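Journal club side-thread
Mid-discussion, someone asked how the predicted structure for our own chain would compare to the paper's figures. Pasting it here so we can look after the session.
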Amino acid sequence: MDIRVGVCGLPRRIEVLSEKLDVVEVQETFYRPKPGKYPRWKKRAPGLEFTVKAWFLITHGWNRFLARKARLDEAGLDLNTSNIGGLKPTAENFKLLEEVINAARELDANLIIFQTPSSFKPLDINGISEFMRQVKEKGFTPVWEVRGSTLEYKEELARITGRTSGLVLSTDILRGFLPVDYGNNILYTRLHGLGGRQVNYKYKYTFNDLKRLLNQVLYYIENRMKTVSYVMFNNIYMFDDATSFKRVLEQLNLGK
């Protein structure tokens, strides 16, 4: 049974994460990919799997709050910001995607995570499907984290995944049920804490939470034909919670 446990970000040195966990989702690429630095990461942790979170410009468009955090200047981007975001199959979005892909290649990463805003309306079925197909044709597996009100668009999500072989839909499976997806065998869940509204980064998972999490993962393996499962913690206590979940798996002779 292939259950891979990891964290979203670098809560410890890469060497420690490589020793204790299976995978790390690179977060800094969400704010701005920095190709050229990542071969050093791979060299320091050759046995660690990396996934890469896509640049927010591709999913959110020009967002002033995120841009300030990323220290981005709209004038310095050298592209038409009205044509970015929303997973649109535009030349501008694909230009941004190339930066993400360059980072992914340096890390030997296969999965690219696209986190759209919680209010995103997936109405452009043809456009989103085409964008995701292009990601797949470039040799990567697109993982789309759907959350918030986006989860209400069940018919649209089903049509998009039905048209895009290999597209992985992702959500926090302790907060909601994963929409039906087609043509892939991967479960990818990002865990943002319990309680609060959509996220509660200060939450520390209890032993009972982790048992429920395992039951949810096993459900998707048994009923949705998921042969590879990524369980990614994205809270303040991510390292402690991830290593605790690894111990639960080891006690049951499960995991990677």
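Post-session note: DSSP finds ten helices and eight strands in the chain.
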